[in-house]
Design a protein that fits this description.
The protein is an all-alpha fold. The protein has 2 helices and no strands. It has one domain.
C-alpha cells in the first residue's frame, strides 16, 4: 500500500469514527427527546384534566349564581330550588308511568 493510500485510509477511518460518534450522540439525543415528549404529553393530559375540572367548577358557580338571581336573596333561591325539585319530581313520575 502506498503512502497516499495509507493517508487516505487514515482520513477515511477518522471520518468514519466521527460519523459513528455523531450517530451515537444523535441516538442518545433522540432518546432524550422521546422521553421529554412523553413527559410533555403527560403534563398536557394532566393540564387538560385540570382545565376540565375548572370549567365544570365555573359552570357550577354560574348555575348557583343564576339560582340566587340578581338580588341574591336566599329565600328567593330556596323557592327556585323547590320549584326545580318539583319539576324534576313530575318528570320522574311521568317516566314511571
Amino acid at each position: 500500500m502506498t503512502e497516499r493510500e495509507t493517508v487516505l485510509l487514515r482520513e477515511f477511518k477518522g471520518k468514519l469514527d466521527k460519523l459513528i460518534n455523531l450517530h451515537l450522540r444523535m441516538k442518545k439525543e433522540k432518546q432524550l427527546l422521546i422521553e421529554e415528549q412523553s413527559q410533555m404529553k403527560e403534563q398536557i393530559r394532566l393540564l387538560n384534566l385540570q382545565n376540565e375540572e375548572l370549567v365544570k367548577k365555573q359552570e357550577d358557580q354560574k348555575f348557583a349564581k343564576s339560582l340566587l338571581g340578581a338580588d341574591d336573596d336566599p329565600h328567593e333561591a330556596k323557592i327556585k330550588i323547590n320549584r326545580i325539585v318539583r319539576e324534576i319530581d313530575k318528570c320522574i313520575a311521568l317516566l314511571n308511568k
